[in-house]
């Protein structure tokens, strides 16, 4: 296992930290930006949700990038964290987009 593959696994493990961080930051921004907590505006939802989404997506994207570097250096084991991160990223983006469509309808 080369250096980049190790970094790919470490960045994938950072999801355990980024998930609660994204929730806290998103909810915190929503409470700061919303005038009425029962009915926050669309801009407040967009800013808070977008920030939380970026925080949660960051370790997945970084894991994929490090995995690609590991593959380029000849470590075939780098495919595993890349596949896991890619699958999680697709599922997360699908859930986010479906939630956004549900808000708009």
In short:
The protein has one domain (3-104).
Structural features, described:
The chain is mainly alpha-helical and 105 residues long. It has one domain (3-104). The chain is 83% helix and 0% strand.
Write the layout of secondary structure elements.
Blueprint lengths: L2 H11 L1 H19 L8 H31 L6 H26 L1
Distance between the termini: 48 Å
How many independent structural domains? 1
The low-confidence parts are none
Q: Please tell me how large the radius of gyration is.
A: 17 Å
What is the H-and-E element order?
HHHH
Number of helices: 4
How would you classify the helix and strand content by structural class? Answer: mainly alpha
- The portion of residues forming beta strands comes to under 5%
- In total, how many beta strands? 0
- The chain-level mean pLDDT equals 91
Largest sheet properties? none
The gross shape turns out to be elongated
Which bin fits the share of residues in helices?
Answer: over 70%
Summary tags:
105 residues, single chain, mainly alpha, 4 helices
